[in-house]
Design brief:
- By secondary structure, this protein is mainly beta.
- The protein contains no helices and ten strands.
- The protein is globular.
- The two termini are about 25 Å apart.
């Protein structure tokens, strides 16, 4: 079992201005679990992933393809499905990318 706190992670700038990322776990280039700390107004332009994306909002408000999400909300994006994400407030989100099936 592993325990950690987001405040203790090594936050790194991303290619998207206004966004920092800390990797919590990485299994491969297409399978990872990360936290993103993002400034209000930051836009992640339309993009796709080879595996499922599970996004959970921890703080702030987030928008995925025009739908607003608040803390505790989850967005699940299928492999290859294009989507755009926008931070409406300063936010922290957890994103898991992988090739696992979505549980029914």
């Amino acid at each position: 079992m592993q325990f950690s706190a987001l405040k203790d992670y090594d936050w790194q700038a991303t290619a998207t201005p206004g966004a920092e990322k800390c990797e919590i776990w990485r299994g491969s280039e297409t399978a990872y679990f990360a936290a993103f700390r993002v400034k209000a107004g930051t836009v992640f332009q339309p993009h796709k992933h080879p595996g499922w994306e599970y996004l959970t909002v921890l703080s702030g408000r987030w928008q995925v393809d025009g739908r607003e999400l608040s803390p505790g909300d989850v967005a699940i994006t299928a492999p290859g499905e294009e989507h755009k994400e926008v931070a409406l407030d300063d936010s922290i989100v957890i994103i898991s990318i992988g090739n696992n099936d979505v549980p029914s």
